[in-house]
Amino acid sequence: FKDSTGNVLTRTDRIQRGDVSRILSAFNSQVLEPLGIAYLPVGSTATDTDTVGDLDIVVDIASKDVLFKMISDELGLENVKKIGQLIAVKFLVPNSSEDDFVQIDVIPSASVEDTAWVMKGGTEGSVKGVFRNLLFSYIARVKSDQESNTMGQVKYSLSWPGGLLVKVDGEDKGPREPDPDNFLPVLGIEVPKEEVSTFEDLVKYMRSDANFSFMLQGFKDYIDNSRYLQSKDEKVKSAAEEAIAHIERSRMNESFAL
Hints:
Oligomer: single chain
Order of helices and strands: EHEEEHEEEHHEEEHHHHH
Strand order of the largest sheet: 2-4-7-6-5
């Protein structure tokens, strides 16, 4: 969280797991509960990882503008910002020094449960949740390529959070679908969302279908860029490599099963 001159006002080091529940409990009692807002932690905030970066939560207010006004009226405009689809909040860590602030990213949603699934993080020792979502996005791109031809261009695109948007020749076919129970079948995934809630679950499901299994071999190229496999951040690069390694292990297991 930065001020108008670019100075960082919140913690720059990662937050220890032991502090997460204490901070969120204080934010809930001081800000959310008085406003009548319910929340769920999402992303790595909701997992068992040893540390997290910014704290991520989803709340049961669908409008970003309404949510921004409610929280800024409570905490002051200087402590709240609109960033993309979310609201970033500068919040004082309870029982700490007067300059010990953290950033809490608050995501507006019409369904906190659906958004929590969409933004599900990976647990300690597993592939990070971002790669599950990248794999879904890759499926959407392949489906777009398969259905586009000289007669028309079809584009399936996913945003996290947000859901699936379908465009035909550049025109929205309808509103963006936020409910995974509705958009997963559109992508050809015919199981409940609970069965593909992690990267490992999704790869396992894809290996059970010949077309999806074949599709997996192209995922490495999809993330072979400066953001992931070629990232200068060794942690990001390592996480991407582990995702690809898991796909390779699943291929070997499939071969042995045959």
